[in-house]
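FW: tagging you since you asked about this chain on Friday. Here's the raw sequence from the shared folder, copied in full. Didn't touch anything.
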Amino acid sequence: MITMTALPDFRLETYFSQWEFTARYHLTASDAQTMTLAELLTYADDADRSAFHHLSLGYTETFGDPALRDVIADTYDHADADDVICFAGAQEALYLAMKVLLGPGDHAVVLTPNYQSAETVPLALCEVTGVALDADRDWALDLDKVVAAIRANTRLISVNFPNNPTGKVIDAADFAALARLCDERGIHLFSDEVYRGLERDPARTLPQAADLSEHALSLNVTSKALGLPGLRIGWITCRDRELRARLERAKHYTTICNSAPSEILARIALKARNSILDRNRDLITANLPAFDAFFAEFADDFDWRAPDGGCVAYPRYRGADGVEAFCTRLVQEAGVLLLPASIYRSELTATPADRFRIGIGRRDAEECLTAFAQWMRTSR
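HL: got it, structure written out here
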């Protein structure tokens, strides 16, 4: 248990500031293959194409474009447009949700490993207990450990499936049980679902938390599964209208409203969601044999397992030099960028120090793996 710290440097973004746009081979991308504006507009119907070309660049509604919220609501079973509030990406949504839900005297439970701000923002606000996915059991979630972490003042349980960085998807029965235990104890379930739709087996796609509970919050974004991070459009769906109103008031202190062009483009993308997700799943499926072949060639150096979902995986590096030195040499000498385990270090739980994040959802994956393999053959 750690209590109330100031926000630290964001390790991932600090690392990317150095390497993301200078490394020749970006092999750790967390988003699926993106598209050009022209490609996205081919999905537009006549009304949305006209709306984009004749858009007035004024302020928009704080909750988000009503037509966009309608389209988002259509992706849920038990939500309507009034249950949706849009943000400038998932990061703003996560940050403001934590600020609204947590304060001194509260307690939160966060699964690890996870996206850094899912841990550090709650830590800046209240006491937090971490519950680690079990790396030795295929990143299994032990619900008994979640229950043991709950206190009388627990206000929030934060989860992320498909998980970043491991790609883990838990069983739907366990996810439903998690939602029930939150409801029984008056706890908000905060569910980061930004990779939903990229499951290797569609039958394993989890229900959305906002469909399971009136008090749960489902976080999503155009950035990851849809591969459109440049739009900077995310959202939270929650059927608790009082909470949704508090989120709007919090947003008044940050972006106030979203980018009007991005809202229309996000609307186009979400209407074409099934086609875009099919394209991205097909790309991941086509890429996986190259990853399997790479890791089979270097089986003495790595332990590899394809993710259940999403477009990132978290292999183990077995070299004596350690994963941090390995990733540094690889990007400096071969221009191949990976994210070492220190980026996902937790202050709450023990986390493996021998892992690295690798991206599997980009069109240039084989080119990147070829450069990686050549360096391994000549430098190890």
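FW: The chain is about 40% helix and 15% strand.
HL: agreed, and The first helix runs from residue 11 to 19.
FW: great, closing this out.
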